[in-house]
Design brief:
The protein has 11 helices and 17 strands. The chain is α/β, with parallel strands linked by helices. The chain has 3 domains: 97 residues; 237 residues, Rossmann fold, CATH 3.40.50; 94 residues, no CATH class. α4 packs antiparallel against α5.
């Protein structure tokens, strides 16, 4: 499961400056990092209006050209605000005007230093596939049975006359494109390229609401995404080059939840590979993820305990109430009681005190009470892994700080054994993080800084396991 620091991709309007336009007649680029995620501020002059304008780029997240709505420049400082996301950058020039030292404010506040650079630093992603490819590739469109959802996908398959095994790649939480693009990495493309070079067909699909795939997102749950996978199975079964007895699933993170949900609904799935999949109850995993996130944000032990109490309260309310109005009323009452008993510094850090407090609280509640989250909090892997008898390979990185290898692989072992599954294997892989990159700490902030997209060892393990079935 992946929880992202995110800068809105919505374009905002207008800009103005208190400094003469000539000072930025040539574009200046200022670059820094928020939790190791690059943030770029570009300031230039509009030759038509003779006004200074600015945009934010978050290249590691693929969010480029986000226009600043309110730009104020003085001889000492720069303030670049984005009204729609309720935040922005507040910085002061250093002595030689090569740095802007300040803060990023968006709910909470984080220190940020932007250094002037001649051009944006390019990120190296050496594993991203490059043509020519020794296999066939098809850009495909297919639909569900009632034509209400269109799926955009890429099918890669060996250039052979023989029918081949095939896999569908299933992404983690959040809306992702068919390559599972994140921080410039394209892990699903890397996996597809490797497997198809080695005789295995791969279907990788845009998630709902992304690229060429349509479909309702806000009310959808992991069960709906499992239905999407089954549509992909039907597509592969109709493809003349695919061995219909050897169609499997590779699910990453939440995809490791979706894959067994799909397998419970279809006998056409021959095997499952779980990459950083969930072997514990959803409620348990979510509490641990939020706790770990607050550690990374720098909250002290007492503050973390207070937030943990809040999280348990919200999860309990979500579990207790099915009626939306009753849930909202109970939340409002309980949240106010919690706020009344917290120290002001903690509320400021969380963004729960100040001009955007109500907005931040509403957004937090909205995430917890959306159908996807409520389904996940109730998810119990004993209802899926505890019944699956098809071959399963479960891989987790020992430095995964989002889905712990120890607890989750123990869950896989326990439940698949209980199911009487005679062909499963679990592996905790040293030095690999949630995305199976070789990592120093496994912290989420490292993902963007690591050049490796996915460990070659993981690619080899998956290939050999599939071929040995």
């Amino acid at each position: 499961m992946n929880i992202k620091l995110f800068i809105s991709t919505s374009l905002l309007i207008a800009s103005f400056s208190q400094l003469s336009a000539q000072d930025f007649s040539k574009e200046t680029i200022w670059q820094g990092k928020l939790n190791n995620i690059r943030l770029v501020l570009k300031i230039s002059n509009d030759s038509i209006t003779n006004q200074n304008t600015a945009v934010f780029d978050s290249p590691d997240q693929g969010a480029m050209g986000l226009q600043v709505s309110d730009l104020t420049i003085t001889k000492d400082s720069v303030i670049a605000l984005s009204a729609q996301i309720g935040g922005g950058f507040f910085g002061a020039f250093n002595a030689d005007r090569t740095e802007l030292v300040g803060e990023w404010k968006q709910g909470g506040t984080m220190p940020l230093v932007l250094k002037r650079v001649e051009k944006e630093i390019e990120v190296k992603r050496p594993q991203t596939p490059k043509a020519p490819f020794p296999y066939q590739e098809e850009k495909v469109i297919y639909h569900n049975h009632d034509k209400s959802i269109q799926y955009g996908a890429t099918l890669t398959f060996p250039d052979t006359n023989q029918s081949t095994a095939a896999v569908i790649l299933i992404s983690g939480s959040g809306q992702q494109d068919r390559d599972e693009t994140l921080f410039g990495h394209k892990p699903f493309w890397v996996i597809a390229d490797y497997l198809s070079r080695n005789g295995i067909a791969v279907l990788r699909v845009d998630d709902r609401g992304v690229g060429e795939t349509t479909g309702e997102v806000m009310s959808a749950t992991s069960m709906d995404f499992a239905d999407d996978v089954l549509v992909g199975i039907e597509y592969l079964k109709a493809h003349k080059g695919i061995n219909i007895k050897k169609i499997g699933l590779i699910g990453h993170s939440e995809g490791g939840v979706i894959a067994p949900l799909a397998a419970m609904k279809s006998e056409d799935i021959a095997f499952i590979i779980s990459l950083a999949g969930v072997g514990v109850k959803g409620m348990e995993l979510m509490q641990k993820q939020i706790h770990q996130g607050n550690v990374q944000l720098g909250l002290n032990a007492e503050e973390i305990n207070k937030v943990d109490t809040l999280v348990r309260m919200i999860i309990d309310l979500s579990d207790r109430y099915t009626d939306k109005k009753q849930l909202q009323a109970a939340f409002a009452k309980s949240m106010q009681e919690w706020l009344d008993n917290q120290p002001e510094p903690l509320l400021v850090k969380l963004g729960y005190k100040g001009p955007n407090a109500d907005k931040n609280i509403d957004q937090m509640a909205g995430r917890f009470f959306m159908p996807w989250m409520r389904f996940f909090l109730k998810y119990d892997p004993s209802t899926t892994l505890g019944k699956i008898k098809i071959p399963v390979l479960a891989l987790n990185g020992e430095k995964d700080t989002q889905v712990s290898a120890k607890e989750n692989l123990a869950g896989f072992n326990k439940l698949l054994t209980k199911a009487g599954n005679k062909n499963f294997k679990t592996m905790a892989l040293p030095n690999l993080n949630h995305f199976f990159q070789h990592a120093e700490t496994g912290d989420m902030s490292e993902y963007a800084t690591i050049e490796e997209t996915i460990s070659p060892e993981v690619l080899s393990i998956m290939e050999n396991w599939i071929k040995d079935l």
